[in-house]
Specification:
Layout (H helix, E strand, L loop, with lengths): L2 H11 L2 H9 L7 H15 L3 H7 L16 H29 L3 H23 L11 H19 L5 H10 L6 H9 L5 H7 L3 H14 L7 H24 L7 H26 L12 H7 L12 H16 L7 H7 L10 H11 L4 H14 L4 H14 L3 H19 L2 H16 L8 H9 L10 H14 L5 H9 L9 H17 L21 H19 L4 H9 L1 H12 L11 H11 L5 H14 L15 H18 L2 H18 L12 E5 L7 H24 L8 H9 L3 H17 L6 H16 L6 E5 L9 H6 L7 H21 L5 H6 L3 H14 L18 H13 L5 H9 L2 H6 L9 H9 L10 H16 L13 H13 L1 H11 L10 H19 L5 H18 L10 H20 L7 E5 L2 E5 L1 H9 L13 H17 L3 H15 L1 H9 L1 H15 L7 H18 L13 H13 L5 H10 L6 H20 L6 H15 L4 H4 L18 H5 L1 H9 L4 H9 L3 H17 L17 H18 L7 H14 L1 H11 L12
Length: 1455
Amino acid sequence: MSLSATCDSVSQKRTLSTLLAGRVVKRPKQEDGQRLQEAAIQLLEQQQSLSCLLREVENPDLCNIFQSQNGNQSQAESEGVLATFQGSLLVCELRREASKLGVPVVGLSVKMVLKRLREITGVEEQKEEEDTRRYLLSYSQRAQMCVLLETCRELLSQGALCPKLLWQEYRREERLPNLEMVYQLHVYSIITLNYILQSDDAVRLWLGSQLKSLCSCRLSHGEEEETREVQQKVLMTLLGVLVGMGFEQNPDPAPAERRTSLLCCSTLDDMLFWLLDAVEEGLDPQAAGPGPGPELWIKIFDASLCGVSASADALQRFFTHSLTHSLTYKPRLTVSDAITLQNKWIFAKSSRLLTSLFRKLAVIFNMEQLLSHLQHVLETHEVNWKHVLCFVSTLLVYNPCAQSSLRDLLSRLLTKAFEGYDLENMITAFLLARQGALEGPGIFPSYNDWFKMSFGGGSSFHATSKKSLVFLLKFLSDLVPFEPPQYLKVHILHPPYVPVKHRTLLMEYISLAKTRLADLKESVEDMGLYEDISGAGGASVQCQATQDVEKAVSLFESTGKISATVMEASIFRRPYFLTRFLSALLTPRILPVKADARMSFIEALKKADKIPAAQYLSYVDACQKERQTDRSAVCLDTNDDPLEVLKSQLHDFTQLVVEGNDGEMSAQLSRILHTLSVIFPGRPNDSTGQRVIDLHINTPPSPELHVKVVNMILRNFCQCMLGSCRGNPPNKQSLWASRFVGMLLGSTQFLSSLLHRLWDLFHNQGSSLSAAHVLGVAALVVHLHASIPQSPLVQLVPHILPRPVPVGEALSLALVCSTHTNMLFCVRLCVSAVCYGICRGDTLPQQQQQDYIINSFYKKLLYLIPRLLPEARGTTVTAGGPVSEHQEENLTGLWSSATDTNSNWRKTAWHLWRHPAFCQLQHKHHYQLLFSEWLANELHVQRSKDALSDPERQEYQQWACLEHYLPLSVEQGGCGGDMKNLCTHLLSAIMDQQHCNESLEKLHHRVSETGTCLPDILSRLQELVYEMEVTDLSRSRRGRADVCDSLFELVNQRCSPPGTSASPSVSTELNLQHTLNTWNRVLLALPAVLIVHIKTEGGRTVLDCNKLIEHVNQHQRQACSPAGLLSFHLTAHLLKGVLCASVRCGRSTEEFNRGWSQISLHCPLLLLSTVHWWERLSPLLLSLWRRLCDGEPLPEQLQLLTDCHSWASSLEKDPLSSSPPVPAASALLLAACLHCAWRGCGYDPQGFSAAINKLRPERTKQVVVLLFFLFVNDYLSALLFPQEKSHQKAMSVCTELLRVLVDSADWLLIFNSNDKNVYHLVTMVTSDEFTRLMPWAFYSLLLQQSAELHQRAVSGPGFLHTAVLCYINLLQLFLEGHNLTPTTEHSDHQMEPFKILRQAKQFLLRAISQTSPTALSASQLAQLQSQCADLDPEVAAALSVQLDPQSLSPEMDFL
């Protein structure tokens, strides 16, 4: 065996490194150093190969530079000593070998290193010769390379290696450098990149291609993570050096430096153009391109390059340079191309590579710098318009502040354009404005708005001179051949401001634009009536017509009239009206049972002869067929499944939210909005005014596709909210939710579907929602509410509210707290919403904080939390002082409670109830739950489905009334400690109940199925009134009088008609009757004694019935049924009140007699009702009197009622025999008793005549007249109400009485209600409307009398005056449209109303001709003539000719 073989064998067993390392742990002695060195040299002399020696000194334990040190400190020190010692040995051997060969040490070391480099880089090449795209070292190669370079650094430190010679020898082989090897040489400071770029003349040939290859090389999955990290480090290092050497500013560079700088700039430009070529050729990763090369190059464009190899100024110059080249890259597109193709260059349709590049280049600049540079580039270069407009879109999407900056730029461009009449600035401004508008209203105002704002006013840019106007119109005219039609429509519908004297110039442009639209087959006839013109374009004519129909129906619903725009279109734009508008309006559908606004609108157009009969019949037939098959289709403009596209986009957005990538979130939202615009086609929103969405609460659901999309959006929002809330409370989250909602606001059609879905969830499916769903939809509603300036108003259909309201308030109406289930969902949702709003607005100014807290949701919590949590009733919502110092801790705890899956709503609600921020809101007026609002909520609760039992509800209501709202100040919605105020609120709520129920039935059809809490509230009112009654007994009577006065005052206010019209509308009468019926229910539930005022007068306690009399005369008589008669229960209650109040006075009998005398004189309705019900009232009142006044005689007035009733009965039963004397009672009381007696029995003409004859004495004439009045009322009632079959009897009685009275003028007085005569008080028996019908009764009765009676009547005093007045009033009734319908069962003696009017006129003319001229005084004649002049000139002429001798002309005497 040779020596070398022996050495090899030995080295295989233990290497030199192992031997040396094994001895390093023993600290060598000083005297052993020489011997050790000599032994090593002797060993090296036997080992002749330097390459093997170089491999020998490579310690494998030091190879991986990416591993951390695992040994202790002593081991590290030992390794350092070892490396130095190994380097020394290697240098010694190199010098020995060099001297032996006669060559320089440096040359020998270079040769040795190059050989080792080839060995390292050539191992894998032999194995993977076919993989020509391998530009990175393998793991093992990288480890060996690092150790070799460490050794080279040691050689370099000892002067045994020359870097320049090493690079020259390496490049002499003409091999392309491996970029990772170059990077490692640079990192280990062996050969820097700066030196390579400066010294290698051929670097231009290989650096660019190697960079592209390195970017594009594919990585295997096994080594992807580590190798990708190395790949990015290599690229970033190279880019940093290139930027530093290429863009570092040197005031006086040497020629070599200048040449190197140009080389670096050229290389970077080459890479940029390679990237832009990939964009142009469609090599976009989003479109499944060939590789990640361009995207990787963009990714390393980062501000972190600054400070290592390049300064901040150099990096800024590089980004500016790159941006300029990107905007000016291949400027082949002309301005006309940009105008035509601009709508295809929006952000959502742009290459993601290009938008990512612009985003990276813009990151270190502010918006003013970017737009100023853009303006500079536009002014000094030929630009690629596609890139320029895509750059503008990217800025607008990713930077919220870009909108205002772009507006300023547009203003500057227009100013310069009109100052110098510069077309370039003009076209630039228009293109940029349109590009912004294309991104949607949430990002930039619509083109419609911008054009009107810039050119629509007298102070616009062009309004200064005629030359400026001509310049603008010439510019617009030049654009016409290239303009998309939507912009032409903007210019036509919203033309620029033009003075009147220059209108011809504008009309020339409009004519040209209309001609162009006709060429495009989009004539002006196809323009919508209410078209929302925007730069987006793309909406079909049918979509425009559909929107026109919706707008027209909405206007018709609000005004009740067909809009002028529709009427004008039916005449001047008839082709569009017939073919487009009517086709959209008459779309077949399932017609509702009750006509909706659309059906009413169609009927109105049909009545106006605007719908052809054949087209209407076809529509009706199609609607009938639609009932059999319900088809709902949505047209889409894409071949891809939009649901799948949207699902993928929403999934990506969720990931971005979780990662917190704000920039990419905005871009993704733009893509989502674009997809939604495909599913919900239509024009963007018109931002010139507040949008209004009709929310149909009872309509069928939207098309299935729309429902699926809305559900998908809601589900995604809830997922995003849940994911973002796991880490941070809302005040520390990004603005993703606000941006998400802002995106949704861009589509009114989608927003309408969303609101309908939310309404359905809240109103019908709330109990099925999980905690995550409740939190998500609550946050969504909060953000919709916070976006009030951008979000539309909502009009509920049917119109529960008088006007449109914000989104939050509209949706709160879906939360009907009528049952236990509804209350639980409502409190869960509102707690989540208010918690989120408080936490979200914590870091904002106070006014903006309230934008996130919906006041209607807050009020529902003020109502529900004390109701459902008894412990909350003891802690009122107050905020005594500023918010606690531990506000942050409170917020964290509040939010943790709201999102904790193990926490229930009670815990969260209790936490929220005590939170300082929640308490402080109570001091804001619009967050206060007023007592009236509390009562309205409580009255909507269904008692059988309430969360509280009856005792619990009583306890809660008593707490709310007496403990909470009674002491609460009026400013805070309470009663200020005033019990009278509290009672007034309760009474108002009870009387409003019916109106509330009607509205609630529209909202919640189940409310009428079970009873509400009205009996409970009525019980609370009774308790309060009785309490005041009892507590006031020991004091003066003033307190009870105040309660009495306040209650009557409230009723007077509610019953007083809003207007002063003599003839109130039917709705007013119905409301009055309903109000009085409700009040009577309350009145019957209150103590009877309360309704009579007791006062002290002259030291005595006396009755004061004035309030009672006034109330009955003013209001109760208006709602009597039948007319002129109070109900038994009300009459008995009023009489009990008078009787009980008189007992409380000192002399009960005397006070009752005095009070009843006052009622008999001034309140005829109560007197007549008492007489009518006396048989039932008498036992009740007598029993009450005996109980209250044991032993006292019956009051004279009560006894008089009994006597009069007995007298009338005896007269009716036996009129021929002698009757008892007439009681000393009032005429009205006697007449009422007679009327009651004869009304209840059959009519005997002979007996009735005999009885009347007994009443003929003069002292009883008033009794007969009043009796006649009462029977005339019966006759009139019989005419109006056919169910009362007493017409013939009433007419016969009236005829008999008329025979007795016809010769006297007294009977005529009851028909002159305006005259203050002795019978005037009797008109207070019936309603005003009934009294107005007395002229009808006058002629209806009189015309059925005999000729003999007619003659007696005409001859009677005062007849003609009364007859003319009654005729005038009767004619006025017909002119006002009164439907004087007689009984439906006509008799031979009845006449139709118009027949009565005609015969009344004939009778009156005969009477005038038969009357003496002295029958009327001059003043009466003049009055009658003036009243008849306008209504019936013929009667006026007859009066003038027959009764006014002065009117006859002297020339007519010969007649």
